Amino acid sequence: MLPAQGQFNRVNTAGANEVNTAGANQTGLGDLLGFGALAFFLFGIFSSAIDLIGFLRPVRPALMAAVVGLLAMAFSGRAGQVFKHKVCLMFIALTLWDIICVPFAVWPGGSAHTIIGEWLVTVLTVFLAAGLISNTAQFRKISHVIAYSAIVLSIISLKAGQLSVEGRLYMPGTRYANPNDLAVILLTAVPFLAFMALRSGNGIRRPLALCGAVPILVVVARTGSRGALIGAAVAVGVLFLQVSVAQKLKLLLGGVVTIGVLLTAMPSQLTERFLTIFGGSDTVYDIQKDKDSVLQSAIESSYSRRMLLMDSLTLTYQHPIFGVGLGNFPVAQDNLARARGEMIGNWHVTHNTYTQVSSESGLPGLVLFLFAIFFSFRAISHTIRLGRAANSPEGNEVQMLAVCLRIAVLAFMVCAFFASMAYLPILTVLCGLTIALELCARGLAPATIPPPFVVRPMPSFQAVKRPLRPIPQQLPRRV
User: What share of the chain is helix, strand, coil (3-state, %, to 5)?
Assistant: First the structure.
């Protein structure tokens, strides 16, 4: 459900309707320091600008910001609420299970390195995003930071990005060297950009968000990610079902214009690649005859992904409890390919987040991973109900933010079917933000309800007007 009056863009926060962020004036220095560390940390994740600054790499500014954020959360008193949340409990249980699975891994050393070097850093973002936001005003600023970061990343990608052999845009030297990862991180930031554009009272931020959406959509299209295209279609479809009739017409018009612009701006090779979603032969053509054919590469990519999907399901069946170990799927798939008579394995990831977790962490790890997503959706639904019960401008804003979070998580879930992103700090950040928004919504005051009618005693002067007759000592006998 959307905010009151059914209008997604009617949250007015100017003048008499200024959003009252309870507790904003009581924010201490530690809270401000932790909030600043979180904003810097999320800017580094969603913009990847720090990765391109060479002299900052030895300093590890993102790690320093994370340490400052953890200290601020420990002294803020919110750590207890965060760690008791079911979403956090699922990620803690998943981490402990991955550690238990290390001795049973195909390559224990590689599994331990993946846990220490990737997963622990990724799961840390859940607690940072959940524990360093103390009120709705700070959450609104964090959503703006994510939107600005996506604009910066898109501009950097257009200026400093490179094209692969298939003609797909990617960012070398960053965490988004894979075109699919680059497309997904931008796609999950689009709902926050929509919030910045639709929220009244944002002033210059509204046209800035509308202008910033152009390079973001161009970069997503230039990555050639078919999974991101399907995820965007599902997210827009969910949004279409939740808006009013007038907004449905605007959404249809904007979608037609956007598709037309992107088809005009995209090279014909990438257009052919996107058309392979609706069909294509499984025949693997000879690359030497036509090296520049992106269509052949797209068809071969689809064939290779199906083979990797089947191998990941096979490894899940062979190792259902402990899996093959975090980061060990390429090694295990190579052993599987050699066992069936092939010269060498594919040496690629699963290209499916869910089978990535099931094959490397076993079915218990997949269950914990899915429960974390399930409890995140429950937290979002609870937040929407709390915002609706508040029946105030701040409650409407909370509902709008919750809807944007729901669309972002749903877009990630769809894209997760086509890319291996279990260890990237995308879903963990979104889950942490759902916890933070629910904790902020719990502090909203419910709508004022008029007190019920109370029978008041009769005033004394009315009783004097008509004095009561004395009760007789003895009742008359009935004849």
Answer: 70, 0, 30
